[in-house]
Amino acid sequence: MLTLACNSKAPGSCPAQPGPAPVAATTAKAPDGAPPVPGPVLAPTTKLASDEGMWTYDNFPSERLKERHGFGPSQEWLDKARLSSVRLAQGCSGSLVSPSGLVMTNHHCAHRCIQELSTPQRDYIADGFLAKELKDEARCQGMEINRLVSITDVTDQMTKATAGLDDQKANEARKAEQSRIEKACAVSEDVRCDVVSLYQGGQFHLYRYERHKDVRLVFAPELAIAFFGGDPDNFM
User: Fold this and answer.
1) Shortest CA distance to 88 belongs to which of 119, 65, 115, 110?
2) DSSP 214-227
3) Cα distances (angstroms) measured from residue 208 to each of 65, 174, 205, 236
């Protein structure tokens, strides 16, 4: 694991507001409890398959989960989970773990940053890095962190833009409408907006993100620990 931080004094930084601990950024709070783990299937000849799938925060099958496992998260619980998670623009995910914008993610997600901060005298890849104080945090140039703050259904807008058009013109109109919606949403450099196609184009949602460009390295273990187990990709 490794930890990053959004600078709370910079524009577009992770906001730090008071709230019951543990709180992630503004209103995000680490949810209490977790769904119980189902018992193992003992029959060795049983064919196992997973049908849970991947679900968006605003369309989660809570009732089905409650029937099967006795835990059905409310929308409030799901919103807290959403606000406690972040997306690194490079394609990774992370978790907000403090009110001051501390983010935990996988080591490989910041490998480039750690490498660029290293010098011939200090090899942070091999030896690790630790900022003991706020002033010791090292800026990760070019790294961006996004937090999903709202989801809006824009299916009607996208559908109307392509009504009655052939495939080629509909595709062009869809791209133009998507660009228009995203530009209207992104009112400042601190905001990122993406129109997301869901269910093979059956729905379109506008995802609005807080955009944090001042990202700093707080802690990274040495590579021998980060690479423990030999998996270079996840769960380091």
Assistant:
1) 110
2) -EEEEEE--HHHHT
3) 27, 19, 10, 29
Q: Given this model, what pLDDT does residue 53 score?
A: 76
CA dist 196 and 50 (Å) reads 25
Is this structure's pTM higher than 0.85?
no
53-68 pLDDT, tens digit each: 788 999 999 999 999 9
User: Amino acid identity of 164?
Assistant: G
Mapping DSSP onto H, E and C, the string for 158-183 reads HHHHHCCCCHHHHHHHHHHHHHHHHH
**Is the dihedral angle over the CA atoms 56, 59, 61, 63 positive or is it negative?**
positive
Q: Following CA atoms 10, 140, 187, 83 in sequence, which dihedral angle do they give, to the nearest 10 degrees?
A: -90
A 10 A CB-CB count for 13 gives 20
